Amino acid sequence: MKILLAEDDQRLGELTSHLLRKKAGYTVDWVTDGEEAYDYASVSSYDVLVLDWMMPGIDGRTVCHQLRLDGYTGAILMLTARDSVQDRIKGLDGGADDYLVKPFEIDELMARLRALGRRSFTPLLEDICRMGELELHRTSHLVVCGENQVQLSLKEFQLLDLLLKNRGRVLSRQLILDRIWGMDTEVTLKTIDATVKLLRKKLTQIDPRSNWIQNVWGVGYKIEA
User: Fold this and answer.
1) Does the pTM exceed 0.85?
2) Which of 75, 16, 64, 12 is nearest to 38 (CA)?
3) What is the pLDDT of residues 180-199, one digit of tens each?
4) Would you call 221 helix, strand, or coil by DSSP?
5) Which domains are present in the chain?
């Protein structure tokens, strides 16, 4: 199961993410503010979002509400120290699917995550992602343009898939690094540039005029037809 944990308390966030990885074997991305949580949820697929209500900047309830307005259909669990009935109603009305009051036991959190995961909120991705004549085939890791095709490595495929799912949107190099190599990786930002270079080289094999992946100086990359 893939979890996004948004918790600004350093000790609680570190402990919770560690236990979810160690005890349950989950893949966990941990962020510490609402803006990061919104960005990560918008560009990647998670089985469950775990949002702390009280976070700096944008609070968890606002993140939840905005994601629902954007059409987000994934499962959302709200964490909060607010335990009144009215607070629970506000959280659920804001779009949360479940509600857990702090302090909580990690076993109860995992049980609630399993229950939400079984409900299969996240739709399956289509096998083929298209942008004009460009086609990315998820099952075979092939990229096709007209009658030409090329096979990508795992990281090249993940990078192109991430860019295509967010076409026209500039993705920072740090966000790309976190999404593809993981937040705990020792890989440097230079690896992203090297992977983009290799990906561009392969794309020219199927269309010599291709310049779909654009470098946004000082920020990151985007893809456009």
Assistant:
1) no
2) 64
3) 876 656 778 888 899 999 99
4) strand
5) 2-118 (3.40.50.2300), 128-223 (1.10.10.10)
